[in-house]
Structure formats: C-alpha cells, structure tokens
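Hey, can you fold this one?
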Amino acid sequence: MGAEDRVPPELDVTDAEPKDWVEALSTPGPGQDQAMGRLHEMMLRASRHQVQRMRTSLPGVGNERLEEIANQAADEAMMAVLTKLHTFEGRSRFTTW
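Sure. Predicted structure:
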C-alpha cells in the first residue's frame, strides 16, 4: 500500500461511531437522523479524498464539478449501505464493512 492509498488521519472516525450502527440506522427518530448524517459525512470525506486522488485523470474539471462528483458518490454509497444493512453480520467494524 502506497502513501497515496492510506486513509488520512482526519478520516479516522472511530471515536464518533455509534456502538451499534445497524440499530442506530434502523430505528426511526433523532438517533437515526444523527447516524445517517454521520454516515453520509464519512462517505463524503472518503469520496472527496478519492476524487482528489483521481483529479489528474479528470483534466478540465473544475472544483464545483469535483464536489458534485464526490457528493454523488457519497449519496450512492449511502444508498448501497442502507439497502444491504440487513446483511451486516457484525464480523467486522461497520465502517470497514
């Protein structure tokens, strides 16, 4: 793994994780809203990081469009996670699943 593949320290969110992501994301109410917001924030940070790594392969694409790409990727990742939430078995950390 090269230096460019390592997750930056600011993306390490272990202290901010709910104890039970599945429960937090599945139970309607303020806790669910918080968990969804936190999960989307994590997805957005990761997608921004990836978009920046790929920036050289996207010549002529401005910052606004790059932000749109990162947001779209985060939204799609969030939907994928929520759709498969019931399959999480807890054999790994939720954030690495």
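The radius of gyration is 15 Å. Let me know if you want another pass with a different chain boundary.
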